[in-house]
From TrEMBL:
UniProt organism field: Bifidobacterium lemurum
Principal location class: membrane
Location of the ABC3 transporter permease C-terminal domain: 343-473
Name of this protein: Efflux ABC transporter permease protein
Transmembrane segments: 21-42, 338-364, 385-413, 442-463
Matching Pfam families: FtsX, MacB_PCD
Coiled coil start-end: none
PANTHER family: ABC TRANSPORTER PERMEASE YTRF, MEMBRANE COMPONENT OF TRANSPORTER-RELATED
GO MF terms, alphabetically ordered: transmembrane transporter activity
Residue ranges constituting the MacB-like periplasmic core domain according to the UniProt record: 21-164
Length: 482
């Protein structure tokens, strides 16, 4: 028989018992919808986890420190008995590790400081965070400049993404002396909406900062508001004099807590400038050896984090990263996806039983027809292909319809989760977005896999009945009166 004749016979046989064929296809539709929707919800959970991990910042960052860390072990440099030191030599050794793209000390400023800007120091921020890093490693460490450039000389600094919003207007009333940053949510009886934010009092890249600090400086709390000025505290007996140093912001960094709180709201300066500032208010610190409390190491790829961490620990240092948390979240996500996929697979099993039952009944009803085909010289393989084709067609139609229905249901779930139908939600429910988290996510490969799997289930379910058909003796089949 020609292949076209086999296809024509398949179509005729399927439409011969329309009700039974439709009910069998419906069973495949239910099974396909179940497994696609279950897997899509698992994909939605995975997308939510990815958004959560992205909100934590750069996950390829490893924080290195000495002693007293979460690992609980003592720090020893290569088993020599001497404690490992986080100094410039250690930083260079980290940069030489395969898979490391950059490393920088992250030196915190351990004294209280306030910053002022504008004529007469009108704008002020108390207890501003100050951090020192190797500013030549900005690109290697993945620091993102939202505006401006990197510092090129002493006195030039970077500011965090929201640093300008931390300043208050000392000459304005309490109701008007602050600016709200964008991204905050304001809720009322009509629901919650994202605040577009106010403009800061000044452009940080067009204004110089005066940083005031000292050993016993209280952050400017001794000053008063509304035009009274900010005075320096005398501190305890023997305290160093309060110092005021002027800095010029030349760039704005994108906030990332994994790279230091100051990237969100603070001042980031070079290590040399931080050492000079510290020495100015505490000269004795200039005589101390240069060691760091912690060093940030960035890997070239997220998959390099475990290996790089292991090598750093082998040097005698303690480390911390989000690698364990990331792995735990991924394992939980895979477990949920397997559980949901298993629930959908049960429906597919029921559909497979339905296909097998339909094909068995079809063979029983067409026994005489099978005998006549054999008597006329039809090849056994053609009879097998005919029955397998019918079973596969049931799976194909059920899979296609099931995918269409699954896509519509998934779309509706996402629209409801996003707050109801709107032009933006109708589109984001399908393709998602940078700030959009969907409940149900159906990637293109899931549709393709569902259709192919439906066909495979149909062919497997029809294999037994097809073999039964080809084993029927021709004479016995012709004598069959049914």
């Amino acid at each position: 028989m020609r292949f076209g004749d086999i296809l024509r016979l398949c179509r005729q046989n399927l439409f011969r018992r329309k009700s039974r064929t439709i009910l069998t296809v419906l069973g495949v539709v239910v099974g396909c919808c179940s497994i696609v929707l279950m897997v899509s919800i698992g994909q939605g959970i995975n997308e939510q986890n990815e958004r959560m991990l992205e909100s934590m910042g750069d996950l390829s960052i490893i924080t290195v420190y000495t002693g007293g860390g979460s690992s609980g072990g003592s720090s020893d440099s290569g088993g020599t008995g001497e404690p490992a030191k986080l100094d410039d030599k250690a930083v260079e050794s980290f940069r030489s590790i395969a898979g490391v793209s950059g490393a920088t000390p992250m030196a915190d400023f351990f004294y209280s400081a306030s910053a002022s800007a504008g004529a007469g120091g009108r704008y002020m921020q108390q207890y501003i965070s100050v951090m020192g890093i190797d500013t030549t490693q900005l690109d290697q460490m993945g620091y993102e400049l939202l505006d401006g450039r990197a510092p090129l000389k002493s006195g030039e600094v970077l500011v965090g993404e929201y640093t300008a919003y931390g300043f208050i207007d000392r000459f304005a009333s309490e109701m008007n002396n602050m600016r709200n940053p964008p991204g905050e949510y304001i809720c009322d009886e009509n629901g919650c909406q994202e605040n577009e934010g106010d403009d800061p009092f000044f452009d940080p890249l067009a204004t110089t900062f005066q940083l005031t600090t000292g050993v016993d400086y209280d952050g400017g709390m001794s000053g008063t508001m509304n035009g009274m000025g900010v005075g320096a505290t005398g501190g305890s007996s023997g305290a160093s004099a309060t110092q005021t140093v002027e800095y010029t912001p030349v760039g704005v960094l994108k906030g990332d807590y994994n790279k230091g709180y100051a990237t969100s709201s603070g001042i980031i300066m070079s290590l040399d400038d931080l050492k000079k500032l510290t020495a100015k208010i505490d000269p004795s610190s200039a005589e101390k050896s240069t060691t760091y409390n912690q060093v940030l190491v960035k890997t070239a790829d997220l998959s390099d984090v475990p290996e790089v961490e292991a090598q750093i620990k082998a040097m005698g240092f303690n480390t911390s990263s989000y690698e364990e948390m990331r792995k735990s979240i991924e394992e939980q996500s895979r477990g949920v996806q397997l559980a949901l996929g298993g629930i959908g697979a049960v429906s597919f099993l029921v559909a497979a039983i339905g296909i097998a039952n339909t094909m068995i009944m079809s063979v029983a009803e067409r026994t005489r027809e099978i005998g006549i085909m054999k008597a006329l010289g039809c090849y056994v393989r053609d009879i097998r292909v005919m029955f397998l084709g019918e079973a596969g067609a049931i799976g194909l139609f059920g899979g296609l319809v099931g995918c269409v229905i699954s896509g519509l249901v998934s779309w509706g779930i996402n629209i409801f989760a996003l707050g109801g139908p709107s032009p933006d939600n109708l589109w984001h429910a399908i393709v998602g977005g940078e700030d959009v988290t969907r409940v149900s996510v159906i990637p293109w490969w899931l549709f393709l896999a569902a259709v192919l799997f439906s066909m495979l289930v149909g062919v497997i379910a029809g294999f037994g009945p097809a073999n039964k058909a080809v084993r029927i003796p021709a004479l016995d089949a012709i004598k069959n009166s049914e």
